[in-house]
C-alpha cells in the first residue's frame, strides 16, 4: 500500500505542487504559529482537535449510561452517579460537540474557500472564539472533575435552582462562555457571507453548504443570547436567591422552560442545518449533477431557521400549557416538516439520472437521508398533540432526537469530514476501511436507537437509572448497538490519523467535484487562492468536468471496478 | 406477544385506544414515506451507478416547480390533517367528563401521595374502580414531577405552586405502571408506583378494609373552621354579630368569573383558590379590603388540597342537594355508595 | 450588488491604507464589514436583554400592584438625572464620531473623554442608588425586608431590578474599557475621513447601551406614577 502511494506521488505532478507552501507548512510548525494563528483554516483544524476530544468524552458518558441500563436494577453505580452520567453526556455532546461541530470545523475551513474570500471577516474574533470554546470547555471539565452536575442538560427549574446538590453554576459558566464562542462564529459567518464574496459569486451561486451555514448563523445569533440569559438567571437564583423561577420564591418554573426552549429548539436546527448543507454538497458531488431544486433547498434552510423560532411550545404540551397555545404550537411545528421534506425529496431526485459513485462520503450521505427521514417523521408524530401526550419524556423522544442529532448531524459531520479531508490535509484515507466504518456506524446506530422507539411507546420514561424488568431485552439490544456504534466511530479516528502520515497524497480535486474550494491546491495556500477567483458559472455545473480524464484516484480506482 | 418482551403496551382505556389509532396511522404513513425514499435511493444507487471514468450526471435543465409543489403540498395536507386529529385526541384526554370523581395527588421527591374523595390515603398506589372516570388534581411539594400511566396513554406535569390535572376511565381491571416522567433528582427512576383497577365490588371491599377517617370535604370543612376562615368568609346566611361581612362569601365562587380590584377578571380555578390562601394580597376581589393574612407555612400541601376541595364543593352542595331532591343526582353510583373510610396501606399489590 | 461596488472601489483606491487588513480588498469593504458585524452583534444583545425584559414583563403583568408598590421605593430623581447623563453621553459620542470622520484629532479625544466621564458619572449615581438599597435591606436574599403589602413581589421586583440594571452596568463598564482603549489611536491621530470605523462602531454600541437604559428607566422607575 505505502509503496504504491510513493509511486503515485512520484509519478504524478505532486512534487511541483508540494514545493509550494500551503497553509500547514507556510506559517511554520511551532506552537505559536498555531495558537496565535488568524488563518481560518488553521482555526478550523484547532477546532477539529478540541471537538474530537469532547466528542470522545461525551461518548464515554454515553457508554456508561448504556452499561448501567443493561440490567433493570442498579448494578453498576448509584442513582446520583447515573444522573450525572446522562447530564454530562448531554451537556458535552450538545454544547461542546453538536452545536459547534460542523460550523466551527468545516464551516470555518470552507466558507471563505467556497465564496472565494481570503479569510473570514474577523480573523481575530475567530481565534478568540476558539479560545472561548476551550475556556468554556475548561469550566465544564472542572465541573465534571469536581463531581459533575445532575440536572439534565435542560437545567429545568426549580430542580436546578433549588434542589440539585451538584456543580450547576460551574457548568452554566462553561456553557455561557461556549455560547459566546458560537455567537462569534455565527456573527463572523453572516458578515463574511454578506460582504466577502468573490466577484461573480452571487447569492444564488453560493454552494448550499454556505446557505445552510448562513441559516445556522442566524439561529446562533438570535437564539444563543436567550439561553445565555436564561442560564445566567438560573445561576443568579442559585447564588443570590433571586426569585425568578422557583415558586417558593415567587417565580414561575415554566417560564424557564419557555426561555430555554426558545433557544434550544432552534438549537436543534443549529445542529442539523449544517449537516443538511453538507449532504447537499455530497449528493451533488457524488451524483455529478446539479442539485435538484437548488432554490427550494436554499430557501428551505432559511424557512427552517425562521420557523424554528416559532415552535418551542411543543416541548410543553403536558407542562400545564393551555390547550389553545398547544394547538398553535402543534400546527407551527408541523410546518417545519415541509422544508425538511422538500430537502429530502430534492436530494433523492438529484440521484435520478446522476452518475452515482459509492465513495465513503456518499455512503454517509445516503445513510443520512434514511435516518433523517425517520427522525423527521417521528418528529412530526411528536408534534401531534395526541401522541405527545403518551410519548413525551419517554425513550421515544430519546430515540427521535438521536435520529436527528446522531443519525443526522454526526453522519453529516463524518460525511463532510471524509469529503473535505483531502482538501484539509492533502491526504487520502483508505477507502476500504472508511466504507466499513460508514456501514458499521449505520448498522450500530439503528441497533442502538430503533429499540428505543419501541421502549418509548411501551412507556419507559427517559432519565431512568432503573426500569421494570420487561424492558430489559430492548435495552440490551440498544447497548449492544452502542458498542458497534462506538467501534464505527473509533475506526475513522484511527485511519484518518494514520492517513496524515501514510495516506496517499490528494490532488486539488480528487472527487471531480465543483466548487471554488476544489479549484485551489490541496491543502490550500495560506491566502486560499493564488489568483483571486472570479465566478462565472452556476453552482454544481459539472459540464466542464466531463472531459477531464486526469482526475486521480481513488476515483479512478473505483471507476476501474465498474469498467 | 411474549410476556418478557412486550413490543406494544396494553391499553386500558378508551383514550389509550384513540392514541394507539392515531399513532399507528402515523406509523403507517411514516413507513410508507421512509420505504419510498429508501426504495428510490436503492434503485437509483444501482441503476445510475457511475459506469465509466469522468462520467457526469444528466445536465438537462429540469422544470422543478410542479414536483416541488407536489412534494410540499401533499405532506402539508397530511401533517395538518394529522395535527387536527391529534388535537381532537388530546382534547378528549385533557377535558375531564362531568361525571369524573376527583382524587388529589401530591408529588414529592420521590413518592406519590394520593387522597381519595372518601378520605382514604395511599402512597405510590392508586386504587380506582373500573369504568369510573377519575380526575386527578395534582400539585408538587418540591420540584416538577410528571404523572404518567402508559396503559392509559396520559401524562401531565405536576408543578409546584399550582394545580394541573389528568383524567382517565379505566375499562379493564388490572395493575398498571405509574411512572414519574419528569426528571426530579436522585431517585427519579424509583418514583414509580401502580394504578390498581378493581371491579366495583372489589373496590368497595378494598375500601372497607381500612380505618375510619373524614372525607376530603369534611376535613376541608373542619380546617375551614379551625383556621377561622369562616369568621370572614361566612358560610350560609349566618351573620352572628350582625356586622357586614369582611370578605366575599365563597358559595359558588369556584368556576365563576371574579372581578378583581385591578380591573381584570378571571375564572376562579383551583390554582386561584390556592394562591388566595397562600398569597391573599396577590389578587384582591373588587370591592373588598386587602385584610386577609397569609396561611403560607401554616397548612401542609395535603391540607391545602382539602381546603381547596372544600371551597370547590361549597357551590355545588346546594345544587347537588337540589338535583338529588328532584330525583336525579349527578353523582355516579360508585361514588355515592363509597364508604367514607378506607385503608392507608392496603395497597401492597405488586407492580408488573 | 456588493460584488459590483467592491470591484469599483478597488479600482478607485489602488494604494493600500495602513489600516487595511490583508483579507479585505478595500478599506470600504473593511468598514462595511465591521459596522455590519456590530449591527449583528447588537441584534444578539437585543435578544440577550430581550429574554430578561420578557421575564420582567410577564411578572409585571401578573403582579402589577406589587411591582408598582416596589417601584415607588426607587429614587426617581436619581433615575431621571441618570437618564439625562446618558442622553448627554450619547450626544458627546455622536460628536466624537463626527470629529473622527472629519479628522479632528483633539476634538475626537475630547469628546471621547467627555463620553467616558459621563459614563462614569452614570455608574457613580447607580452606585449611590445601590448603596441605598443595601442600606434599606431592599437587596433580595436572607436580609430582605419590606414594610409594604407585597414583600414577596417586592423581592422579586428587586431581583429583576438588580439583574437588569446590573447587566446594563456591566455593559457600561465594558464600554468604558473599550473607550479607554480607543483613546490611544485617537490621540495618535489614526482616524481620518478614510478610516474611522472603530470610533463609529463603538458609537453604535454606546448608543445601544443608552437605548437599553431608555427602556429600563420607565419600566422600572415609572410604574403606576402619573
Plain-language structure description:
The complex is a heterotrimer of chains A (563), B (352) and C (226). In chain A, 69% of the residues lie in helices and 0% in strands. Chain A is built from 19 helices and no strands. Chain A is globular. The two termini of chain A are 22 Å apart. Chain B is α+β, with helices and mostly antiparallel strands and 352 residues long. Chain B is 34% helix and 18% strand. Chain B contains seven helices and twelve strands. Chain B has a five-stranded mixed β-sheet with strand order 3-2-1-5-8, covered by helices on one side. Chain B has a five-stranded mixed β-sheet with strand order 4-10-9-6-7. Chain B has a two-stranded antiparallel sheet with strand order 11-12. The longest helix of chain B is centred in the first third of the chain and has 34 residues. The two termini of chain B are 16 Å apart. Chain C has 226 residues and is an all-alpha fold. In chain C, helix 2 packs antiparallel against helix 6. The longest helix of chain C has 37 residues. Chain C is elongated, with a radius of gyration of 22 Å. Chain C starts with a helix and ends in a 5-residue tail after the last helix. The N terminus of chain C is likely disordered. Chains in contact: A-B, A-C, B-C. At the A-B interface, helix 6, helix 8, helix 11, helix 13 and helix 14 of A face helix 1, helix 2, strand 7 and strand 9 of B.
Considering the chains and any ligands shown, give keywords for the structure.
heterotrimer; B: alpha+beta; five-stranded mixed beta sheet; 7 helices; C: mainly alpha; 0% strand
Shape of chain A: globular
C-alpha-based Rg of chain B, rounded: 27 Å
Strand content of chain B: 15-25%
User: Per the principal axes of the C-alpha atoms, what is the gross shape of chain B?
Assistant: elongated
Which structural class matches the secondary elements of chain B?
alpha+beta
Largest interface: A-B, 103 and 90 residues
The pLDDT mean of chain B sits at: 83
Oligomer: heterotrimer
What's the helical proportion of residues of chain B? 25-40%
Determine Rg of chain A (CA atoms, Å): 23 Å
Low-confidence stretches of chain B: 318-352
Give the strand order of the largest sheet of chain B, numbering strands 1, 2, ... along the chain: 3-2-1-5-8
In terms of DSSP E residues, the strand content of chain A is under 5%
What is the N-to-C order of secondary-structure elements of chain A (H for helix, E for strand)? HHHHHHHHHHHHHHHHHHH
Work out the helix count of chain B.
7
Low-confidence stretches of chain A: 1-17, 547-563
Terminal CA distance of chain A: 22 Å
Distance, first to last CA of chain B: 16 Å
Amino acid at each position: 500500500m505505502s509503496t504504491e502511494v510513493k509511486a503515485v506521488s512520484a509519478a504524478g505532478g505532486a512534487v511541483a505542487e508540494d514545493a509550494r507552501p500551503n497553509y500547514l507548512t507556510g506559517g511554520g510548525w511551532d506552537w505559536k504559529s498555531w495558537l496565535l494563528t488568524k488563518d481560518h483554516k488553521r482555526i478550523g483544524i484547532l477546532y477539529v482537535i478540541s471537538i474530537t476530544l469532547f466528542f470522545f468524552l461525551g461518548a464515554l458518558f454515553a457508554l456508561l449510561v448504556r452499561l448501567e441500563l443493561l440490567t433493570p436494577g442498579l448494578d453498576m453505580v448509584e442513582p446520583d452517579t447515573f444522573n450525572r452520567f446522562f447530564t454530562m453526556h448531554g451537556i458535552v455532546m450538545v454544547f461542546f460537540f453538536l452545536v459547534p461541530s460542523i460550523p466551527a470545523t468545516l464551516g470555518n475551513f470552507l466558507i471563505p474557500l467556497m465564496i472565494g474570500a481570503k479569510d473570514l471577516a474577523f480573523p481575530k474574533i475567530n481565534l478568540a472564539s476558539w479560545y472561548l470554546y476551550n475556556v468554556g470547555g475548561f469550566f465544564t471539565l472542572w465541573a465534571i472533575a469536581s463531581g459533575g452536575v445532575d440536572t439534565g442538560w435542560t437545567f429545568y427549574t426549580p430542580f436546578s435552582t433549588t434542589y440539585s446538590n451538584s456543580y450547576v453554576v460551574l457548568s452554566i459558566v462553561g456553557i455561557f462562555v461556549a455560547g459566546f464562542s458560537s455567537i462569534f462564529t455565527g456573527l463572523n459567518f453572516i458578515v463574511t457571507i454578506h460582504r466577502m464574496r468573490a466577484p461573480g459569486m452571487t447569492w444564488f451561486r453560493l454552494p448550499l453548504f454556505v446557505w445552510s451555514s448562513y441559516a445556522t448563523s442566524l439561529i446562533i445569533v438570535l437564539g444563543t443570547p436567550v439561553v445565555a440569559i436564561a442560564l445566567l438567571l438560573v445561576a443568579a437564583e442559585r447564588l443570590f436567591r433571586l426569585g425568578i423561577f422557583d415558586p417558593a420564591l415567587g417565580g414561575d418554573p415554566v417560564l424557564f422552560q419557555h426561555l430555554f426552549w426558545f433557544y434550544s429548539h432552534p438549537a436543534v436546527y443549529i445542529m442539523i442545518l449544517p449537516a443538511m448543507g453538507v449532504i447537499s454538497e455530497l449528493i451533488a458531488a457524488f451524483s455529478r449533477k446539479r442539485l435538484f431544486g437548488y432554490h427550494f433547498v436554499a430557501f428551505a434552510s432559511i424557512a427552517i431557521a425562521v420557523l424554528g423560532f416559532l415552535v418551542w411550545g411543543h416541548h410543553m404540551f403536558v407542562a400545564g400549557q393551555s390547550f389553545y397555545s398547544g394547538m398553535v404550537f402543534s400546527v407551527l411545528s408541523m410546518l417545519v416538516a415541509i422544508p425538511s421534506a422538500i430537502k429530502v425529496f430534492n436530494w433523492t431526485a438529484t440521484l435520478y439520472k446522476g452518475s452515482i459513485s459509492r465513495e465513503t462520503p456518499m455512503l454517509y450521505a445516503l445513510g443520512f437521508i434514511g435516518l433523517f427521514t425517520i427522525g423527521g417523521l417521528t418528529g412530526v408524530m411528536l408534534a401531534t398533540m395526541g401522541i405527545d401526550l403518551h410519548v413525551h419524556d419517554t425513550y421515544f423522544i430519546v430515540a427521535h432526537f438521536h435520529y436527528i442529532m446522531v443519525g443526522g448531524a454526526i453522519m453529516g459531520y463524518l460525511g463532510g469530514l471524509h469529503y473535505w479531508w483531502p482538501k484539509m490535509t492533502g491526504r487520502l484515507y483508505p477507502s476500504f476501511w472508511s466504507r466499513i466504518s460508514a456501514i458499521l456506524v449505520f448498522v450500530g446506530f439503528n441497533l442502538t436507537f430503533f429499540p428505543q422507539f419501541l421502549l418509548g411507546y411501551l412507556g419507559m420514561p427517559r432519565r431512568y437509572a432503573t426500569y421494570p424488568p420487561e424492558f430489559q431485552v430492548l435495552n440490551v439490544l440498544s447497548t449492544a448497538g452502542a458498542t458497534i456504534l462506538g467501534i464505527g466511530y473509533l475506526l475513522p479516528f484511527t485511519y484518518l490519523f494514520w492517513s496524515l502520515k501514510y495516506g496517499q497524497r490528494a490532488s486539488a480535486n480528487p472527487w471531480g467535484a465543483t466548487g471554488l474550494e476544489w479549484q485551489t491546491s490541496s491543502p490550500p495556500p495560506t491566502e486560499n487562492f493564488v489568483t483571486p477567483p472570479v465566478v462565472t458559472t452556476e453552482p454544481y455545473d459539472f459540464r466542464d468536468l466531463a472531459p477531464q480524464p486526469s482526475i486521480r484516484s481513488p476515483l479512478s480506482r473505483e471507476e476501474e471496478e465498474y469498467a | 406477544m411474549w410476556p418478557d418482551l412486550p413490543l406494544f403496551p396494553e391499553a386500558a382505556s378508551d383514550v389509550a385506544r384513540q392514541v394507539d389509532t392515531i399513532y399507528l396511522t402515523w406509523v403507517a404513513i411514516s413507513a410508507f414515506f421512509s420505504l419510498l425514499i429508501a426504495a428510490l435511493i436503492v434503485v437509483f444507487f444501482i441503476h445510475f451507478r457511475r459506469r465509466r471514468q469522468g462520467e457526469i450526471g444528466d445536465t438537462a435543465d429540469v422544470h422543478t416547480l410542479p414536483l416541488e409543489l407536489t412534494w410540499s403540498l401533499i405532506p402539508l395536507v397530511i401533517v395538518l390533517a394529522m395535527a387536527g386529529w391529534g388535537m381532537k385526541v388530546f382534547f378528549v384526554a385533557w377535558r375531564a367528563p362531568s361525571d369524573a370523581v376527583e382524587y388529589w395527588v401530591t408529588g414529592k421527591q420521590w413518592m406519590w401521595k394520593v387522597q381519595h374523595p372518601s378520605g382514604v390515603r395511599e402512597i405510590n398506589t392508586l386504587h380506582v374502580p373500573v369504568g369510573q372516570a377519575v380526575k386527578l388534581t395534582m400539585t408538587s411539594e418540591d420540584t416538577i414531577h410528571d404523572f404518567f400511566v402508559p396503559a392509559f396513554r396520559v401524562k401531565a406535569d405536576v408543578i409546584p405552586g399550582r394545580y394541573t390535572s389528568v383524567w382517565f376511565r379505566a375499562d379493564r381491571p388490572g395493575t398498571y405502571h405509574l411512572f414519574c416522567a419528569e426528571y426530579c433528582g436522585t431517585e427519579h427512576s424509583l418514583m414509580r408506583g401502580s394504578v390498581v383497577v378493581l371491579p366495583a365490588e372489589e373496590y368497595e371491599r378494598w375500601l372497607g378494609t381500612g380505618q375510619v377517617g373524614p372525607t376530603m370535604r369534611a376535613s376541608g370543612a373542619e380546617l375551614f373552621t379551625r383556621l377561622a376562615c369562616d369568621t370572614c368568609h361566612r358560610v350560609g346566611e349566618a351573620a352572628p354579630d350582625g356586622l357586614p361581612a369582611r370578605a366575599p362569601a365563597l358559595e359558588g365562587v369556584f368556576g365563576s368569573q371574579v372581578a378583581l380590584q385591578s380591573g381584570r377578571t378571571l375564572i376562579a380555578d383551583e390554582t386561584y383558590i390556592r394562591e388566595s390562601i397562600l398569597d391573599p394580597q396577590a389578587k384582591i376581589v373588587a370591592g373588598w379590603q386587602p385584610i386577609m393574612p397569609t396561611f403560607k407555612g401554616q397548612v401542609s400541601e395535603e391540607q391545602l388540597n382539602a381546603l381547596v376541595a372544600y371551597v370547590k364543593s361549597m357551590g355545588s352542595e346546594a345544587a347537588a342537594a337540589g338535583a338529588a331532591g328532584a330525583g336525579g343526582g349527578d353523582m355516579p353510583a360508585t361514588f355515592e355508595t363509597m364508604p367514607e373510610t378506607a385503608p392507608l396501606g392496603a395497597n401492597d399489590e405488586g407492580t408488573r | 450588488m456588493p460584488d459590483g461596488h467592491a470591484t469599483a472601489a478597488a479600482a478607485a483606491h489602488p494604494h493600500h491604507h495602513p489600516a487595511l487588513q490583508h483579507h479585505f480588498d478595500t478599506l470600504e469593504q473593511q468598514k462595511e464589514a465591521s459596522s455590519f458585524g456590530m449591527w449583528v452583534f447588537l441584534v444578539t444583545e437585543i435578544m440577550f436583554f430581550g429574554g430578561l425584559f420578557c421575564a420582567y414583563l410577564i411578572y409585571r403583568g401578573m403582579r402589577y400592584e406589587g411591582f408598582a408598590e416596589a417601584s415607588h421605593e426607587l429614587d426617581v430623581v436619581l433615575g431621571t438625572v441618570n437618564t439625562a447623563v446618558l442622553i448627554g453621553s450619547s450626544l458627546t459620542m455622536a460628536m466624537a464620531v463626527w470629529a473622527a470622520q472629519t479628522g479632528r484629532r483633539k476634538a475626537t479625544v475630547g469628546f471621547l473623554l467627555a463620553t467616558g466621564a459621563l459614563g462614569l458619572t452614570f455608574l457613580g449615581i447607580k452606585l449611590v442608588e445601590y448603596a441605598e438599597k443595601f442600606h434599606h435591606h431592599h437587596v433580595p436574599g436572607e436580609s430582605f425586608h419590606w414594610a409594604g403589602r407585597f414583600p414577596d413581589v417586592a423581592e422579586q421586583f428587586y431581583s429583576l431590578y438588580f439583574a437588569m440594571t446590573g447587566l446594563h452596568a456591566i455593559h457600561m463598564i465594558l464600554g468604558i474599557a473599550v473607550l479607554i482603549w480607543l483613546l490611544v489611536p485617537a490621540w495618535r491621530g489614526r482616524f481620518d475621513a478614510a478610516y474611522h470605523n472603530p470610533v463609529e462602531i463603538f458609537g453604535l454600541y454606546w448608543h445601544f447601551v443608552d437605548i437599553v437604559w431608555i427602556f429600563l428607566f420607565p419600566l422600572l422607575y415609572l410604574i403606576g406614577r402619573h
